[in-house]
Amino acid sequence: MANNYTTTTPTTLEFQGDNVGAGTIPLTYDIVITPDTGFTLQATDFTIGSTLPIEVTSVSFADTTTAYALGNLVVATVTLAQWYTMPGSSDVIEVDIDGRALPFAQPKLSFTTSGNIIGGSKGRFITASGVTLVSNATNDAGTIETRVFDVNIPANSQKLVVSYRIDSSAHDEGYYSSLPQYKITSSDPSRWSSQVSSILYGTTTDDQTASAKLGEITYYQIDFYYNMGDLAVPLSDGNSITMTIVAPTVFETPVVSINKAKYDGYQNQSILPSRDIDLSLNVLGSPGATYDILVMDDNGLSYDFTSTTFTRALTKSSEQTINASSSSSDFPAITNTSNFHTVTVPAYNEKAALAKYLTTTITPTGETKTTPDGTSTDPYVITLNQFGEVDFTIGVTPATYGVAATTATLLSFLNKTPLSHPTIFNPTDFPLLSTTNNSYFNISTPLSYTVNGTVSSASTVNITLSATAASLKLQVGDSVTGTNVGTARTIVTIADPNANVIVLSGVDGTVSGTLVFTRNVGISRQPLATDFKNSGISAAYKITPNVESIVTQATTNSTTVSIDNGDNVKDGQTVQGESIVGYPTVVSGGGSQNLVLSSLQTLPSAESLEFSNAMSDYEIVDINVTGAGTTDCKLNVEGHVNRVGHADIVESLVLQNFITSYVKPVATAQAIDCPLGGSVKVYPLGTGHTGVLTIVDVLGSGRSATDSATVSDDGSYLLYLAPTSGSTETITYKVNDGINTSTASADIVVTLTS
């Protein structure tokens, strides 16, 4: 069907080798979408119809004026990938854009207003532009005025339809100590919205003067908006605005107070970046409120607002007074005003976490309170943390049972912003991308047992070492190389592991110097992601997802907290929750239901807490060992870092969890009974061997191997089928563990019973 709109096709002349990352190709291109005559557009009606081409990272849509307004265009901004390079010929990048244009329409809204009449024309509804006053009437007492309005509004757009205003400066009826109250009646109240566009207060403190007193309202205007749909809204739908204002009352001295204080963009206990930063402190209160500000760091230095530096001398701001009205999303200017102060914080690049913090104290002065009801003068205190850069390292524990990884560090992710989300990509998929800030890793590193022993003395094959066999973790069968040892030599005897004497399979002369012992690496199982241990947080094992528990008893300003299950909670872990302030850690109690935290907390019962290693998050996508028992044993690990922590993190793979000394499988002799003509399962595998069985021969009664025994599908047992006559049969077999086959065969002797 027709789209009822057209799009432009941006083009550019480039040369082979031009690159987005180098700035020789523009990063973005604009596609302008224009509606056909009689149609209108809005940006949110447009999307990408299919998967973006690989050369494009994103497409955003924006209106040039107002959605669905006549003349509004939609601009689709296409952002290219940083790696895109101009090829040797013309290149066309197609972006599939889906959307719609709607016929221009202006459905009519009919609504009523009513309000009490105070002081002549004071407290009146004011017609907005384009709005028609249909009728106007007052009640018999002349105290309530009702108006009817009509207004055409473009479909799916918002319009100012009416305002309500009080203006004491034009009359002598006095001033107002309370704001007007309003009620909106509608079948769909969500289509109505309001905004206070202006408000003025008196500033005089002398209640004997004729001027407006401090806190009294002298001027006020609120604007009402309607968000029109596709259909007209008749008067019968009952849309109405009812406004009520209380007549002026005798002036009462209001409480002068500071009602709130915050740094724009940062909550209490927020983290500041380590770079230089200018902070905006917003102090909100009533007109005339006074206070001073003290900003101190963890070294006892205080901020000098004149020199904008931290000094040894105790410095604070001069007394400040709230005077001017202002408004923002956080601080509406209906009943309050605010002051803004700048605090310049220098860069902090030391590699330490939670080692620097700022404490800001806003203290009321004079008669100023810190609650609107005047019951408190407690200062406002705001604490901000500033972290240094952190490291995130994933590695393998050093030699364990004599086994070590050739590449001990799988990923070293250094000097990162605390709690940042690093870039994740696979450089093999995108070879043109730089590996800088790449948090993805895919490592294959050899695993081997290698240890050196120094010869103390030697008598042919009897070797005395300077260290015990146990301390070197030597085993019978280890390969040995060194001066005059020869080739293919092994340890054949270790009479006493706690002694220094070993016996070799042979020598070619007098053995001396350093001997090198090697051994093939075996595994008891495949490694798991939970085999990683955090060496920096009290040996806390990495658990994904992070540990969660529930508060069982409410606490008030306490470091002690009780939880329902602390089995997997470790000392040193960071605690987070909806009511948690800052970044406390578990000081003690890990593994139990009673914890001690590093800072005071107020927590409600049943709140969920999360425990993590410094709030870090990484994922092991795949981990396995290949070639166990061979000379090509390798550890293979793939993963990526989702978020670095607020402290240095070292996650280490614990080899001892799954590494063993490899021993070739051994077939063992067995004796079993089986009735004539019956069957029996035989489990001839030794402990630790999980490979398949290999049947070499079957003797007795002249039967073949397939007639007498078969191997199960999983290779875990033999199914023996007995003949109908005879007394015994013997099955000769070997064991294969998937790596090697047993050197010697063994017999399973079957005694046939009636």
Write a structural description.
- The chain has five domains: 5-103; 108-244, no CATH class; 258-386, Immunoglobulin-like; 391-542 and 613-663, no CATH class; 670-753, Immunoglobulin-like (Sandwich), CATH 2.60.40.
- The model is unreliable at 324-335, 537-545 and 687-691 (pLDDT under 50).
- The strands form 15 sheets. A six-stranded antiparallel β-barrel has the order 31-32-35-34-33-36. Strands 11-12-9-17-14 form a five-stranded mixed beta sheet, with no helix packed on it.
- By secondary structure, it is mainly beta.
- It starts with a strand and ends with a strand.
- The protein is built from two helices and 56 strands.
User: In percent, how much strand structure appears in the residues?
Assistant: 35-45%
Major β-sheet strand ordering:
31-32-35-34-33-36
Round the Cα radius of gyration to an integer and report it.
41 Å
**Ends apart, CA distance between termini:** 86 Å
Shape: elongated
Largest sheet: 6 strands, antiparallel, barrel
Structural class: mainly beta
Task: Count up the helices.
Answer: 2
Low-pLDDT residue intervals, each spanning 5 or more residues: 324-335, 537-545, 687-691
Helix content: under 10%
Number of discrete domains: 5
For the secondary structure, the number of strands is 56
Q: What is the arithmetic mean of pLDDT?
A: 81
